[in-house]
Amino acid sequence: MLFKKNTLNLHCILLCAGALLTFHHALIARENTNFADLTSPAHQYWTRPLNDPFSKLIPDFESGKIQLDTQNQLTFVTSLLKALDIPASSQMLVFSTTSLQLSKISPRNPRALYFNEDLYLGYIPGGKIEIISIDPQLGGIFYIFEIPRDQGTPQPQRAKRCMNCHADTDTRHVPGLVIKSVIPGPNGGSLNSFRREQTGHQIPLEDRFGGWHLTGADPIKKHWGNLIGQLSPAGLKKQIIQPGQLFDFNNYPLDRSDILPQLLHEHQVGFINRVVEAGYKYRAYQDSDKGILNPAHSKELERITSDLTRYLLFADEANLPRGIQGDAQFKKDFRANRQTLASGESLKDLDLGRHLFKYRCSYMIYSNAFQGLPKKFKQQIYQKLAKALSTDKPDPNYSYLPSAEKRIIKKLLQTTLPK
Predict the structure, then answer these.
(1) Which residues have a Cβ under 8 Å from the Cβ of 131 and sit 6 or more positions away?
(2) Does residue 331 belong to any structural domain of this protein?
(3) Which of 22-26, 245-249, 283-287, 324-328 has the lowest average pLDDT?
(4) Total count of domains within the chain
(5) What is the pTM of this model?
(6) Which end of the chain has fewer CB atoms < 10 Å from its terminal CB, N or C?
(7) For 279, phi and psi rounded to 5 degrees?
(8) Lowest mean pLDDT among 64-78, 181-195, 203-217, 359-373
(9) At what angle do helices 375-388 and 295-312 cross, to 10 degrees?
(10) Domain containing 281: what range?
C-alpha cells in the first residue's frame, strides 16, 4: 500500500523512530533478557553477513580500487570522507573523553565527528579512524583502524570493545549510537553529566552539548557547550573556552563546529536507536513465540509503533529559539540528496524558526535502517501514520500539525517513497 486520497499505505518508510520509549525499569530488565543477546539465533550479530555501506566498501579500500590520499592525516581524512559521501561540512568537535581513544582527546585535541544518514566517522589528530556503519538489520557495525602512511591502504578491524558503550543502556541495549552531554575537566575527563540514557530531538537544548564545541549557537541562551569545569571547595567552577582557543583548527578539515549538524545529529541518533531497538525486539519476539506473537508481545509492539510514529512526526520536538542560521555549506550538502515534489517541497526543507523542518516528517524515512524492519512490523507503522496524517478524521494527538502541513507530508510520502 502507498498513500492514496483516503488511505495511507506507505510502501518503504525507512528508519521510523519514536518519541520517548518510556519503559519502567523492571520492564527494561525483563525485556533485555529477550532481545539483548546479540549472539542469539534471532540476531546473530557477529556471524550474520553484513549489509552496511562501509563493510561493502572494505574490499575496494584494501585492494586500492578506491584511492585515498595518504600524504598526511588531514588529506587522508578529507579523501575518506569524500569516498564515503560524508560531507566535511557536518564536522562537530567534541573534547570530552567519551571515546575508546580517550587518551588522545582533550580540550587541546578535540575529536571530530562527521555523518550522513547511514555512516558516522570519528577522527582525532594523532589517533585512529572510527567508523559506525548502519546495517539495516543489525544496527551499528563498528570499525577502527590506523591512518595508513606511504601509499598504504586502510586495514579496518571490526571493534568489539565499542560494544561496552554502544550496546548498553545509552543505546537501549542494542548496537546503536551514543551522545553524551558532560562537563569536562581541564583534561577532558567528565565532572558531571546530563540527559543520561536519552537521545533524540525531544531533549531540551539546555541539557545538550556538554563537552562539545559549538559555533553559530548564539541564539541559544542556555546550553553546556564550550565549557570546562574545575572542582573546588566552593563547588564546580565553569570556564568558557572558545572553539580554537586551545587547539589549532588547521588540524581539521574545517574551522567550525556548527550548531545545525549538532541538531540534525541528535535527531538521527534518537531515530536510529529507536528503530534498531524495534527491529531487535520484533525478531526476538518472533523467535521466542515461534512466529505467532503472544498477546503481551503484540501489545508491546503496538506501543512501540505508536512511539515510533510520534518520533517520526516530531511530536515531542524541543522548541528552537529564533535566529539559528546554520552553516551555508552544510545546508547545501544536507539538501543535495533531497527528494522533492514537482512544486519543490521536500522533507529536507529546513524551518529553523521554532522547529527544525517545515514539514515535520523525518527525512530519515528514506534511509536504509528502516528498510531492514520486518514488513509486517512496518505495516503497523503505516497504519499509525495513516491515522496521524488524516485530515478527514483528525487524531487529537497530532493536532500540532496543521492540515496543510499534513497534506504536503502525505503527498511527499506518496510521491517520493520507493514503490
Answers:
(1) 54, 119, 120, 121, 122, 142, 143, 144, 156
(2) yes
(3) 22-26
(4) 1
(5) 0.89
(6) C
(7) -65, -40
(8) 181-195
(9) 50
(10) 25-40+269-416
